[in-house]
Design goal:
The structure is a single chain. With about 375 residues, the chain is α+β, with helices and mostly antiparallel strands. It is about 35% helix and about 25% strand. It contains eleven helices and 13 strands. The protein has a four-stranded mixed β-sheet with strand order 1-8-9-10, with helices on one face. Helix 1 packs across helix 2 and helix 4 crosses helix 5. The chain is flat and about 60 Å long.
């Protein structure tokens, strides 16, 4: 059957208030992991006009509050906030981090014959599809890419009139379930008071054309830039931000389900994060092997219990025999306990700040161990076994 539709995904820049919070939370996590790879961290951040508040639970090395404050200010400076309403140097910083609950620790820690348990109950999803070279949904891939490009040219000084806060949204046309074009694009970018909406539009359009396939651009009437006409006041001055409020941006842009928890600020004993990474790792290798064009995996856990309670697999090709075969391969060849996931993907490293903006998935695995869940080292395994 033909399956024709339009699907839309959005992204937000590193200067969006919620992403500022994600970056700070993951930077604090990286700081603790850099000093002790077995640190337990759950860090939440709030930002508003010239104010940053962090809170959460820590078990790890003693780190002076001044060091954490300097880190936070450095993050905000790197993003580019030197505005009257939000300035890395002038903002007020408050730290409410405290020790992790012993009731949580006793369930998570390994002891005697008990393996390390999950840090909480929950459901986690992994997804991959063959729409793009990164095995990600096309609308989200475009939405991330334009904001990453705009951030790069802003920071390089090439586009000095753009500000840190930005959002994007792409509506992609599908025919027979394949992306073939774009019906509409929305980009909102903070900008200098010295330019108007038309100037912002003329700055942004060439970068749009650089991140989408040739011939896919929508008509001018469906290309919206700063639809309200003005976006000078932005960032935490214009809107407060919180860690973990952009979970659909972080994952698959609505093309696949999201589990119950956010990622940023959480160490890898928290299966909200590590099991979602593992599920993506498996789904991506399955799709890259060529056995299916789309794959969805769900894992579920209970606090203090090491192995997942359930594993769900959907291949979108109605091949029940293949599905059962892959489920069996996963259960028999991959250790899906928190410890097993961390060891396979080497997650106890300070690699998380760079995940906080422009998506946790669809990125390139790097030599420092970041984005290890994007590796394609089990493609041949699934190709040969299925």
């Amino acid at each position: 059957m033909k399956d024709n539709y339009v699907f839309t995904s959005e992204s937000v820049s590193e200067g969006h208030p919620d992403k500022v919070c994600d970056i700070i939370s993951d930077s604090v996590l990286d700081l603790y992991l850099s000093k002790d790879p077995h640190s337990r961290v759950a860090c939440e951040t709030l930002v508003t006009t010239n104010t940053v508040v962090i809170a959460g639970e820590i078990r790890g090395p003693k780190i002076k509050s001044e060091e954490i404050e300097n880190l936070v200010r450095s993050c905000i400076k790197e993003i580019g906030y030197e505005q009257e309403g939000f300035h890395w140097k002038n903002l007020k910083f408050t730290n409410y981090l405290h020790s992790q609950s012993q009731d949580i620790a006793v369930g998570v820690d390994a002891k005697g014959n008990k393996d390390e348990g999950a840090g909480d109950q929950g459901i986690m999803f992994g997804f991959a599809c063959s729409e793009t070279k990164d095995f990600m949904p096309a609308p989200l891939s475009f939405a991330h890419n334009i904001l990453r490009v705009l951030a790069n040219v802003r920071k390089s000084g090439k586009e000095k009139l753009l500000g840190p806060d930005a959002k994007s949204q792409f509506s992609v046309i599908y025919e027979n379930s394949k992306p073939i074009g774009i019906s509409s694009i929305v980009v909102s970018s903070q900008h200098s008071d010295s330019i108007d909406q038309d100037k912002v539009r003329s700055i942004i359009k060439p970068y749009i054309l650089s991140v989408i396939p040739e011939g896919w651009m929508c008509n001018d009437q469906s290309f919206f830039v700063n639809p309200t006409g003005r976006f000078v006041i932005g960032g935490p001055e214009g809107d407060s931000g919180l860690t973990g409020r952009k979970i659909i941006v972080d994952t698959y842009g609505g093309a696949a389900p999201h589990g119950g928890g956010a990622f940023s600020g959480k160490d890898p004993t928290k299966v909200d994060r590590s099991a979602a990474y593992m599920a993506r790792y498996l789904a991506k290798n399955i799709v890259a092997s060529g056995v299916t064009e789309k794959c969805l995996i769900q894992l579920s856990y209970a606090i203090g219990v090491s192995q997942p309670l359930s594993i769900y697999l959907k291949l979108f090709n109605n091949n029940e025999k293949m599905k059962n075969k892959i489920e069996s391969l996963i259960k028999n060849n991959f250790n899906l306990s928190p410890r097993g996931i961390r060891e396979m993907l080497k997650l106890n490293k300070p690699i998380y700040k760079k995940t906080a903006a422009y998506g946790h998935f669809g990125r390139k695995s790097e030599t420092d161990g970041s984005f290890s869940w994007e590796r394609l080292d089990f493609v041949n395994f699934f190709k040969e076994k299925v």
